[in-house]
């Protein structure tokens, strides 16, 4: 599965700049001490608008997944894509493509580490890698 190109805006610029450097940023509320997903504009717990970008560990655990069948192109088979929901160590859940994941190794709680890819014409994007 190829990833569609993604383009930054003013709000997402710090996130994509960090991804290009091999770092994952999440949103952090100074007043509540709670973490939120990268797209959050308000604290997911208190709705406070005091979120700032903070570096996350890039580690988490697989919560759920789906296997999206590949679509053949010009009678050539296409690989299936594994898409996982990962709970980060900090708490927020991220939906990540798990390229090259062995479906036989998928299980709830499987350790996942964020890696970074840059599709043609796109910003760098996070993907998940299963760890043993």
Description:
It contains one helix and eight strands; from the N terminus they run αββββββββ. The chain has 132 residues and is mostly beta strands. The chain has one domain. The strands form two sheets. A five-stranded antiparallel beta sheet has the order 6-5-4-7-8. It has a three-stranded antiparallel beta sheet with strand order 2-1-3. It is globular and about 55 Å long.
Offer a concise description of the structure.
It is built from 1 helix and 8 strands. It is mainly beta.
Oligomer: single chain
Write out the strand line-up for the largest beta sheet, numbering strands in chain order: 6-5-4-7-8
Largest sheet data: 5 strands, antiparallel
The stretches of 5 or more residues where confidence is low (pLDDT under 50) are none
Question: Rg from C-alpha positions?
Answer: 16 Å
Tell me the β content: 35-45%
Shape: globular
| Total separate domains | 1
Structural class comes to mainly beta
How many individual helices? 1
Helix content: under 10%
Head-to-tail CA distance between termini: 24 Å
What's the total number of strands? 8
Average pLDDT confidence is: 93
* Element pattern in H and E: HEEEEEEEE
Keywords:
5-stranded antiparallel sheet; mainly beta; 1 helix; 36% strand; 3-stranded antiparallel sheet; 132 residues; globular; 6% helix
Q: Could you outline the blueprint of secondary structure elements for this entry?
A:
Elements: H1 13-20, E1 25-29, E2 35-36, E3 51-55, E4 59-68, E5 81-88, E6 93-97, E7 111-117, E8 125-130
Antiparallel strand pairs: 1-2, 1-3, 4-5, 4-7, 5-6, 7-8
């Amino acid at each position: 599965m190829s990833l569609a190109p993604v383009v930054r805006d003013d709000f997402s610029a710090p996130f994509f700049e960090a991804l290009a450097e091999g770092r994952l940023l999440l949103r952090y509320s100074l007043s509540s001490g709670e973490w939120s997903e990268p797209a959050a504009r308000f604290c997911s717990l208190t709705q406070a608008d005091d979120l700032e970008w903070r570096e996350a560990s890039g580690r988490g655990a697989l919560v759920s997944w789906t296997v999206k069948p590949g679509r053949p192109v010009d009678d050539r088979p296409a690989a299936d894509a594994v898409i996982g929901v990962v709970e980060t160590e900090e708490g927020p859940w991220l939906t990540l493509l798990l390229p090259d994941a062995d479906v036989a190794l998928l299980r709830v709680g499987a350790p996942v580490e964020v890696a970074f890819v840059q599709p043609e014409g796109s910003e760098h994007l996070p993907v998940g890698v299963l760890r043993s």
